[in-house]
Design a protein that fits this description.
The complex is a heterodimer. By secondary structure, chain A is α/β, with parallel strands linked by helices. Chain A is built from 16 helices and eleven strands. Chain A has a single domain, classed as Methylmalonyl-CoA mutase (TIM Barrel), CATH 3.20.20.240. In chain A, 59% of the residues are buried. Classes of the chains: A alpha/beta, B alpha/beta.
Chain lengths: 447, 182
């Protein structure tokens, strides 16, 4: 935590206060289409036995900018997969928040849009001032919008959000850069993107940010990555209010309750061990269905309890430096060396392949890089493409990636936490569980 | 898990051979003739406009490449118009639509009607699979709707569907190659 504190009542200031008091802030993913359900979800989050912040996740029609479809769904009282914040009247959203959101319970709007201006306008009109995403992290994985368009849209959205300061609130923006693709993106690229997107936010007037990092395959590697992220943030964002937010694993999630809770507990321990301030939780039903409010409350309370227990027994253990910081720094220097306009530099970096997200099929991604999981469970590069890492990383040639090898890597964490021996499991089969997280759904639904 | 449509046969091979664009003959004939069934086909892998999922498409590309085919992967969120334009340009021997966001029935029906409306694309085999939202009651009716609208095979999710899909691709490859050899 460093730099200027935000105005009283801001998202950043709430998290900073909890951090100083030794409490991890926990946060659910949550978005309901009906206003009364959305309010009930926020109330339950606030009442959980944990230090919480609220979440309003918008639906995918609104995310894609298809407001006509969102309006039609609301008019037909159809159920959407999130809260259509740009469709409901601002008065409706203010009523959802009335007496719930406030300085003691900030609410963040989550969306996933490469053209977020209308979402930002709607949340501002409803009196909110915290949201998340980024010009790269909400363009490449979730759309085929040209990166140049996303950068232009995010520039305008930042400028819109900055105007909230006229109402005495300090707007807060979290980068999703540390979560790219959910899984199989090596840590150095995640943390470089996290810092680069925050630098983009700063260039467009934002002063309070959070840097994300999604739990990957190895607790030790994750700890090294988050400490490297904090080091880079201290170097590059000294004049900002910032904190680190950890995401519980975003890939194929364990199916057993023990496995799911074990993975969440590992994420909570990672947050405490690396002095991160906030944790986005996952629930025991993640692999099976959209989590209920009760699922979320349980996850929030479990994570908070594990974090408190971990803090009591915490002994600082030096983390081995395997080069994550040096890799991330090299990526950042290469991008920032392309020019002072960070949006333009990001666009050029993808054109040149200096940034190249493994397995991401977006037309603006170079698609030359590859990753793998080694015997120790660490997520490493097998091909660094044109990224400026040749002097730091010596990619291990693992042969050509096979379909079954990809499935094995994607389900590595699930199998580990569900207690199945990796060698014994049949990795050539598509996981057959019903429902699931995005990645699980993609896998089993591939065909 | 629904039983895959074994009754659905690949489209007539003659049509496939006639459809091939200049240049693709070279691609096919460059392969050793002693292994006719191993000869690769140009395949387009795609999703539907509302679906932003990525890993299913990466997986299918690898599966098809391991079977020896040449894959053009259009990625997620593909507008119908872009898919049609790419297929007019590439003239693939097979189009594989994968979607897992549960809107596959509606998106797929719209897509295949537009696709089949183009005379140049009328005979290209198109299959769809994933979480299509047709697994509940009425699923069989929906599946038949999709087949009669122009899909050559429909796969609701599950490992058995993957086996059926590989088998379909094998039969298609053999029939195209037989046609080329003949």
């Amino acid at each position: 935590m460093s730099g200027a504190a935000g105005a009283a009542g801001s998202f950043g200031e709430f998290v900073a206060r909890a951090h100083r008091a030794g409490r991890l802030v926990v946060q659910p993913r949550m978005g309901m289409s009906r206003p009364q359900d959305m309010r009930a979800g926020l109330v339950a989050t606030k009442r959980a036995a944990a230090t919480t912040v609220g979440t309003i996740t918008v639906d995918s029609y609104t995310r894609m900018g298809d407001h006509t479809a969102a309006r039609a769904a609301v008019a037909a009282k159809a159920s959407l997969n999130g809260y259509p914040i740009a469709t409901h009247d601002a008065d409706v959203t203010r009523a959802v928040l009335e007496g719930v959101a406030g300085p003691d319970f900030p609410v963040q709007v989550r969306h996933g849009s490469p053209s977020p201006e209308s979402i930002f306008a709607a949340l501002i009109e409803a009196g909110l001032h915290a949201t998340e995403g980024g010009p790269v992290s909400y363009c490449l994985p979730y759309s085929r919008a040209p990166l140049a368009d996303s950068i232009r849209n995010w520039t305008r959205a930042c400028e819109l959000l900055v105007q909230v300061r006229n109402t005495d609130a300090e707007p807060h923006l979290e980068t999703f850069g540390g979560c790219m693709m959910g899984q199989l993106c090596p840590p150095s690229l995640l943390i470089a993107l996290s810092v680069l997107e925050c630098l983009f936010f700063r260039q467009h007037g934002i002063r309070s940010v959070s840097l994300s990092y999604a739990q990957q395959t190895s607790p030790d590697q994750d700890a090294e990555a988050v400490l490297a992220l904090r080091r880079l943030a201290a170097e590059w964002l000294p004049d900002m209010d910032y904190h680190v937010v950890i995401y519980a694993y975003m890939g194929v999630y364990p199916r057993t309750p023990d496995g799911a809770l074990g993975l969440l507990a590992e994420a909570a321990r990672l947050a405490v061990r690396t002095s991160a301030s906030r944790l986005i939780v996952k629930t025991v039903s993640e692999a099976h269905r959209i989590p209920s409010v009760a699922d979320n409350t349980n996850a929030l309370e479990t994570a908070a309890a594990v974090a408190a227990a971990e803090r009591r027994v915490l002994v600082p253990v030096p983390v081995q430096d395997t080069g994550i910081y040096a890799e991330a720094r090299a990526l950042m220097y290469a991008v920032l060396g392309l020019g002072e306009d960070i949006g333009r530099a990001l666009r050029q970096a993808f054109q040149l392949g200096y940034l190249d997200i493994p397995y991401c099929l977006h037309p603006d991604n170079a698609r030359q890089t590859r990753s793998y999981i080694d015997e120790a469970g660490r997520l490493l590069w097998s091909n660094t493409g044109a990224m400026p890492l040749h002097r730091i990383v010596r990619p291990t040639t693992r042969g050509e990636l096979t379909a079954s090898g990809l499935l094995a890597a994607l389900s590595y964490v699930e199998r580990k936490y569900d207690g199945i021996s990796i060698k014994d499991s049949a990795v050539s089969q598509i996981p057959a569980a019903e429902g699931g997280t995005d990645a699980a759904g993609e896998l089993k639904g591939a065909y | 898990m629904r039983v895959p449509p074994h009754d659905v046969q690949p489209r007539p091979c003659g049509g496939s051979a006639q459809r091939r664009a200049p240049g693709q003959d070279n691609l096919l004939l460059a392969r050793p003739l002693s292994h006719p069934v191993r000869r690769g086909l140009p395949v387009v892998v795609t999703s539907v406009p509302s679906d932003s999922h990525n890993w299913n498409l990466v997986f299918l590309q690898l599966v098809l490449e391991e079977l020896g085919h040449q894959v053009a992967n259009l990625g997620p969120c593909v507008p119908d118009g872009l898919l049609i334009a790419e297929c007019l340009r590439l003239r693939p021997a097979l189009v594989v639509v994968s979607t897992v966001n549960g809107h596959g029935f509606f998106d797929g029906m719209r897509l295949i009607r537009r696709f089949r409306a183009r005379q140049e694309l009328a005979a290209i085999p198109v299959v769809i699979g994933g979480k299509l939202g047709i697994d509940g009651s009425g699923g069989e009716w929906n599946r038949r709707q999709m087949l009669s609208a122009g899909f050559d095979a429909v796969y609701e999710d599950g490992a058995a569907s993957m086996v059926a899909f590989r088998s379909y691709v094998g039969r298609l490859t053999a029939s195209v190659n037989t046609s080329v050899d003949g």
